[in-house]
Amino acid sequence: MRVGPPTGSIAAMAAAPVSPTSSEVPSGTPAATAGAAGPVQVRVLLFSDDVATRDAVRVGVGRRPAKDVEVVGWREVATPAAVVEAVEEGGLDVLVLDGESSPIGGLGLTKQLKNEIFDCPPVLVLTGRPQDGWLAAWSQADLAVPHPLDPVALCRAVAELARRSAVRRG
């Protein structure tokens, strides 16, 4: 019988420390040289039909979710059509999608984006509860943070996805 937190799940990834080691980030990439060249700068798309959720995420993440990551812009949207349009326009580094939005939630929208958009930016989904990690995995989300939203978990997740996005752009 296994004791301890699950491994390999999106929830476990979100809870794990996110500082890159030399084996995780190739040298010469923006994330690897962020200390010398300044922080990794990212633009974040934030989708929720609830303005209070959008405010909680923006305030929780802040401008500097990590020492080596800086959010230089937020694009807030409240409809799935606006999400698809924004992602197709490009220029976004991280997507934060609320899985509890209605009538189309962030989980289904993540699945659609990952299957239809070439080189889709990394996606963080906000799930209704910790047990919904399997839904996040099904949707092909890169990471998940459950409600109630924990600012520390949000910062870790956004910073991790920002670093991945920097390597992807690299």
Automatic annotation (TrEMBL):
Region (Disordered) residue spans: 14-34
Organism of this sequence: Lapillicoccus jejuensis
Chain positions with 4-aspartylphosphate modification: 98
Gene Ontology BP annotations: phosphorelay signal transduction system
Keywords: Phosphoprotein
Residue span(s) of domain Response regulatory: 43-162
Name of the molecule in the record: Response regulatory domain-containing protein
Gene3D superfamilies, A to Z: 3.40.50.2300
